[in-house]
């Protein structure tokens, strides 16, 4: 289909006519998008079948990556790149007079995630396929992904993220692979043939129906699967005895309560108690996933005792941790194994990544909730806890404090991380510092007890999406200089380092950056009605809004610059455009207030002609993968300024460096790994060290009030928050109070001056264009090691024991065979 432009154009027109009843002249962009998507699907179907059948081979370890979030981004362009048809399509569309970008933009950007954790899962799937490792990602098919964000009068407003409105061209509903999930009811036991058996009765039954999406490997004929589980009523024809003559209502309510499980993705402020629906989602996901894994495993006709050699189940943070008791349940209650054997197999099958050390983000559930909702799972968790505590007692007899601290069940709550640590064979952190903190602080006792379980796996990003697709001009330039090896071996980007002084390369990068900035300036004009100057420094902070990420510090620094220019209009300040984007969880009022503050400062600054040509502030609404792909290639500087010790890794930092944007950052998360890679000349590091932060917490010697009293400039900006200095009615007393009365938990005031100093160095450095782009080249050259291909290689070797599939020849599978399933209903 994609072999030549002529063939492609011919078949595209024919498909458009047959499937959509349209000719190019009267087709909408949606018609064109769906037609092209359909062609890609047909092109890869045989390879999908072939991959699945190789996966079903005996003696091949399959990876199952369970995650409540997969932030996939648009797939059309990525899929075209993977099958090697991107150029053909782009050129053919040009010849046909079709705007390719507009076609691509018709695809919704599914928001099945909050941020870094979800995008990491998506990058991992891309790498798993690129490396030919047989894998399935498992998630829920949330009807509404993360909310769409609008900024109205400077405030965040949330709208439903309805990504399925026009259907999803990539998914196949597989009704024949549905599973029953049981909630509530009660468990009884009896002795059968001398064996204690458990019976689950009076439960509510819900059907989990998988929708499969192909994950296409880069030019290697491998097509893995992302499996999204959808809830459906287990009984299709309901009969309710009419109460008050209205059975219809009952049916609708019943249906609604079932559908609600896969209705919404929870935003990451949902750590409060009582979100029973969230727990239902977690169990629904793991139960469906494990049942399907076990069903497939049985087709291999191997002994159940060999499960860990054939299947590696990875749980992404603690959200899917009920996979541990659920696998125990299946092995004992359905496969008839005894406790010890079931536990041994479970532990050897499951591995776990921790993604945060923040105590408020660590999950725990009330035992009572689990008992009511999942009675059999509760029994197993209870027993796991008993046995775990017993083994602790054996090792540390009499050390009650330690045992209480490590218990799975304590004070009426189930600690999900402890369950994960006890029931898996490996736990890993996501950057060097993060893993160190896990070992030395958060899970210190666990590390002492079972040091062999701990590993570090520094996060990575896929260079295919984050460089080749989103910044093709840089990708082509790199290839002009060092050839194409880096595409399959991204560490080869290091070959670029010897060209760092090459003026020709530097100038080429200057030109490309300027073009990318012009493109972003156009988006800013269109979205915000604001004119920004591509000659100014584009200084970007884009990420979820959290107090620890310190967007507030960035905003206060801008206010400081503003005051300085106003006070001394002759200040020579290199023009800057500060760009923000990101969502705050709907219930996280403090973070939402910071969004409002940024927009208020923007209103002040952008409307003041005296500073206007030196300073601009842009807030782009609705941050998402597609917007990141536009912003990152247009950035000169990016801010990664979390309070040291708080950001587990960060992956935005890696995406920016890969695009030659220079980091202004703290010694936190993967900034540290990046600093080591690029050297101190090519990153602007500032601020407290993690040890200092932890010391302050420990000894309580930090006094933001002292800073306020002694630094007049800081006093001034803080006072401006609570006076009528900023435009609009809003008062920022709560932010002011959090810094002074709340003792500035995130050390915003403490690090503000060092941020300012770092930024002054940036302004200086930027003015020597050659030196600046030398830094950019060193960053790009050293970004290859942060490709998720290496992260995945390390997971595969050191955690999953998974090896690549043998290389397949094109169309190895029977080409008449289509994947079993139905194209999802109204989608086409
Ligand atoms: C959740 C919550 C919920 C309660 C309020 C505070 C809070 C803060 C953070 C989180 C997120 C926890 C899990 C998570 O998304 N971690 C992110 O994982 C990324 C991939 O490993 C990593 O790069 C980020 O540094 C890490 O924050």
Automatic annotation (TrEMBL):
The modification N6-(pyridoxal phosphate)lysine is found at residue 655. Phosphorylase is an important allosteric enzyme in carbohydrate metabolism. Enzymes from different sources differ in their regulatory mechanisms and in their natural substrates. However, all known phosphorylases share catalytic and structural properties. It is found in: Cytoplasm. PROSITE patterns: PHOSPHORYLASE. Its EC number is 2.4.1.1. It is an enzyme of class 2 (transferase). One of its GO terms (biological process) is glycogen catabolic process. GO terms for cellular component: cytoplasm. GO terms for molecular function: glycogen phosphorylase activity; pyridoxal phosphate binding. The keyword Metal-binding does not apply. PANTHER family: GLYCOGEN PHOSPHORYLASE, GLYCOGEN PHOSPHORYLASE, LIVER FORM. It comes from Natranaerobius thermophilus (strain ATCC BAA-1301 / DSM 18059 / JW/NM-WN-LF). It catalyses: [(1->4)-alpha-D-glucosyl](n) + phosphate = [(1->4)-alpha-D-glucosyl](n-1) + alpha-D-glucose 1-phosphate. It comes from the Bacteria. Keywords: Allosteric enzyme, Carbohydrate metabolism, Cytoplasm, Glycosyltransferase, Pyridoxal phosphate, Transferase. Pfam families: Phosphorylase. Belongs to the glycogen phosphorylase family. Its cofactor is pyridoxal 5'-phosphate. This is Alpha-1,4 glucan phosphorylase.
């Amino acid at each position: 289909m994609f072999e030549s432009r002529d063939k492609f154009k011919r078949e595209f027109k024919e498909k458009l006519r047959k499937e959509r009843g349209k000719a190019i002249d009267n087709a909408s962009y949606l018609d064109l998008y769906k037609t092209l998507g359909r062609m890609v699907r047909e092109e890869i179907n045989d390879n999908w079948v072939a991959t699945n059948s190789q996966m079903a081979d005996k003696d091949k370890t399959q990876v199952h990556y369970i995650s409540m979030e997969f932030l996939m981004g648009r797939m059309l362009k990525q899929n075209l790149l993977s099958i090697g048809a991107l150029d053909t399509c782009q050129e053919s569309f040009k010849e046909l007079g079709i705007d390719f970008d507009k076609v691509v933009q018709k695809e919704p950007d599914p928001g099945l995630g909050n941020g870094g954790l979800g995008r990491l899962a998506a990058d991992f799937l891309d790498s798993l396929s690129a490396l030919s490792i047989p894998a399935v990602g498992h998630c829920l098919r949330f009807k509404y992904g993360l909310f769409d964000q609008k900024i109205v009068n400077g405030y965040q407003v949330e709208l439903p993220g309805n990504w399925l409105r026009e259907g999803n061209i990539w998914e196949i509903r597989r009704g024949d692979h549905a599973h029953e999930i049981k909630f509530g009811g009660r468990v009884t036991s009896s002795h059968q043939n001398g064996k204690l058996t458990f019976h689950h009765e009076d439960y509510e039954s819900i059907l989990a129906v998988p929708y499969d999406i192909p994950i296409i490997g880069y030019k290697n004929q491998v097509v893995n699967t992302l499996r999204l589980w959808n809830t459906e009523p287990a009984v299709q024809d309901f009969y309710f005895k009419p109460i008050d003559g209205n059975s219809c209502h009952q049916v609708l309510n019943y249906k609604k309560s079932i559908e609600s499980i896969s209705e919404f993705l929870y935003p990451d402020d949902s750590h409060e108690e009582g979100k029973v629906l969230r727990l239902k989602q977690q169990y629904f996901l793991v139960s469906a996933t494990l049942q399907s894994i076990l069903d497939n495993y049985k087709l291999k006709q191997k002994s159940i005792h060999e499960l860990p050699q054939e299947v590696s189940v990875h749980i992404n943070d603690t959200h899917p941790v009920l996979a541990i008791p659920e696998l125990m349940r299946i092995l004992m209650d359905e496969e008839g194994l005894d406790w010890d054997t079931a536990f041994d197999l479970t532990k050897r099958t499951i591995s776990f990544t921790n993604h945060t050390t923040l105590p408020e983000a660590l999950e725990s559930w009330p035992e009572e909730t689990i008992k009511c909702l999942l009675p059999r799972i509760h029994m197993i968790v209870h027993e796991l806890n008993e046995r775990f505590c017993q083994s602790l007692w054996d090792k540390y007899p009499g050390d009650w404090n330690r045992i209480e601290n490590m218990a799975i069940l304590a004070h009426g709550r189930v600690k999900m991380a402890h369950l994960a640590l006890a029931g898996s064979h490996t736990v890993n952190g996501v950057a060097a510092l993060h893993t160190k903190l896990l070992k030395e602080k958060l899970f210190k006792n666990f590390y002492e007890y079972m040091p062999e379980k701990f590993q570090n796996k520094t996060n990575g990003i896929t260079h295919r999406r984050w460089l080749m697709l989103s910044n093709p001009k840089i990708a082509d330039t790199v290839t002009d200089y060092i050839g194409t090896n880096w595409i399959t071996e991204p560490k080869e980007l290091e070959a670029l380092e010897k060209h760092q002084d090459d003026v020709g390369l530097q100038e080429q990068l200057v030109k490309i950056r300027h073009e990318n900035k012009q493109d972003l300036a156009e988006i800013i004009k269109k979205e915000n009605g604001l004119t920004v100057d591509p000659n100014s420094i584009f200084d970007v902070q884009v990420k979820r809004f959290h107090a620890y990420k310190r967007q507030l510090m960035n905003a206060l620094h801008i206010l400081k610059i503003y005051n300085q220019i106003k006070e001394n209009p002759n200040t020579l300040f290199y023009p800057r455009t500060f760009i923000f984007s990101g969502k705050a969880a709907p219930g996280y009022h403090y973070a939402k207030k910071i969004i409002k503050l940024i927009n208020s400062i923007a209103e002040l600054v952008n409307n003041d002609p005296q500073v206007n040509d030196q300073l601009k502030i842009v807030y782009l609404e609705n941050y998402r993968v597609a917007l990141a792909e536009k912003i990152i290639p247009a950035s000169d500087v990016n801010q990664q300024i979390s309070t040291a010790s708080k950001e587990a890794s960060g992956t935005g930092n890696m995406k920016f460096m890969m695009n030659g944007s220079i980091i202004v950052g703290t010694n936190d998360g993967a900034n540290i790994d990046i600093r080591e890679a690029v050297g101190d000349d090519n990153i602007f590091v500032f601020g407290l060290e993690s040890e200092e932060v932890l010391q302050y917490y420990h000894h309580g010697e930090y006094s933001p009030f002292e800073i306020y009293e002694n630094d007049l400039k800081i006093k001034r900006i803080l006072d401006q928050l609570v006076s009528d200095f900023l435009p609009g009615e809003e008062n920022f007393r709560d932010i002011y109070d959090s810094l002074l009365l709340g003792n500035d938990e995130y050390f915003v005031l403490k690090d503000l001056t060092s941020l300012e100093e770092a930024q002054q160095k940036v302004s200086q450095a930027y003015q020597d264009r050659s030196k600046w782009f030398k830094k950019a080249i060193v960053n790009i050259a050293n970004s290859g090691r942060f490709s998720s291909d290496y992260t995945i290689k390390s997971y595969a070797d050191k955690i999953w024991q998974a090896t690549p599939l043998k290389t397949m020849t094109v169309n190895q599978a029977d080409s008449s065979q289509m994947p079993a399933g139905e194209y999802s209903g109204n989608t086409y």
